[in-house]
Amino acid sequence: MSQGRLLYAQSGGVTAVINATAAAIIDTARRRKVPVLAARNGIIGALREELIDTTRESAAALRALRHTPGGAFGSCRYKLKSIADSRAEYERLIAVCRAHDIRWFLYNGGNDSADTALKISQVGHEMGYPLTVVGVPKTVDNDLAVTDCCPGFGSVAKYTAVAVAEAGLDVESMSASSTKVFIIEVMGRHAGWIAAAAGLAARKVGEPPHLILFPEVAFDEAAFLARVKATVAKVGYCAVVASEGLRNAAGQFLAEAGTSDAFGHHQLGGVAPVLASLVKARLGYKCHWALPDYLQRSARHIASRTDAEQAWAVGKAAVEYALAGRNAVMPVIVRTSESPYRWKIEAAPLARIANREKKLPKGYITRDGYGITAAARRYLEPLIRGEDAPPYRRDGLPDYVRLDKVLVRRKLAPYAIAD
């Protein structure tokens, strides 16, 4: 058996396929005879020395993990500050690694997690502890730099496009005597990738969504209302997709709630009801709105096969990079062909990814600011292709798994952190 253990942790908002990445990591490590510990609730569990022994999980459970949504080991929103400001936390992490002979650390998350992984790789070197750190990409927002796309995005994109197509048919059927305007709010604080994916639902002119509101385009109230009115007059109804991060010309969020999360991100209170109230007050139309929220990122039953395959591939590559000693890197997806769609995995330095944000290119948004271009369709369509449905039980529900999550024995004194 190889000397040393591998520690894996999940971070930030989970996705429909993050557990496929986890399953790939454990499967690949097992094939290499490397035991895997998983931090309970992300970096918080690592600090508290709450480490799950994945060797106690059965092969059947790990097979089911591949198609189970959520974060099987628990995730968190907890940001480590700079090494200078949070040195005690970094020293604690290294102490936990020493105590459990952890030689490799894989951190599965988005922008902030890439930054944390980079810092941990630096402090390990500074403290003379041989720890290889690899970041593993994950985010439904699709805003990680360098990688062509992010595992988790393809499935939420598929869910969003399908939801808009189905809801559009519903609204259309009742529009003569009922709802005239329907607004669906999607995730995306600063980048409009998910909002753009909704545009895939419209296969020809006049089909929903009729308006997409991107965070990259300043919201113009008068223009928006005029466009809604014109669409209802022409089509009979209007379906609107709004990104949660919609801002006005002054750069203010339309739905800012006045609070922030652990990463310092503004908490948003809901742009859809703000827009619905505006439409009703100014135009008098009956208006409904919907907020899929967690539903869009947990919908494993409609996951994209491309997304599931890429989620597995980055997990497998992450283990291979770690065991090869490739410190402070992340496996990223590289698009090698547009038609037919082909991709591969390559290593990219965490320094090129951490604290950077990839926004929707201007060339993906139509000139009027309310739709997606052909270039956007070429980029998006391959990412939602294929179905990867989970197996279903006899009672008609998906056969998802909950792991045993047996903790290893603590070796250090308790460590308190702020919740």
Q: Give the N-to-C terminal Cα separation.
A: 37 Å
Strand content: 15-25%
> How do the strands of the widest beta sheet line up side by side?
3-2-1-4-5
Broad shape: elongated
Q: Give the helices and strands as they follow along the chain.
A: EHEHEHHEHEHEHEHEEEHEHHEEH
Low-confidence stretches: 257-263
Describe the 3D structure.
The protein has a five-stranded mixed β-sheet, sandwiched between helices. A four-stranded parallel β-sheet has the order 7-8-6-11, sandwiched between helices. The protein has a two-stranded antiparallel ribbon with strand order 9-10. The protein starts with a strand and ends in a 39-residue tail after the last helix. Helix 1 packs parallel to helix 11 (305-323). The chain is elongated and about 70 Å long. The longest helix has 22 residues, at 153-174. Residues 257-263 have low confidence and may be disordered. By secondary structure, the chain is an alpha/beta fold. It has twelve helices and 13 strands. It has helices spanning 18-31, 43-48, 59-65, 87-99, 111-126, 153-174, 193-198, 221-235, 271-283, 294-298, 305-323, 374-380; strands at 5-10, 36-39, 51-53, 102-109, 132-137, 181-186, 211-213, 238-243, 256-260, 266-268, 287-290, 329-337, 342-349.
What attributes characterize this protein structure?
419 residues; alpha/beta; 5-stranded mixed β-sheet; 12 helices
Describe the structure concisely.
With 419 residues, the chain is of the alpha/beta class. It has helices at 18-31, 43-48, 59-65, 87-99, 111-126, 153-174, 193-198, 221-235, 271-283, 294-298, 305-323, 374-380; strands at 5-10, 36-39, 51-53, 102-109, 132-137, 181-186, 211-213, 238-243, 256-260, 266-268, 287-290, 329-337, 342-349. It contains twelve helices and 13 strands.
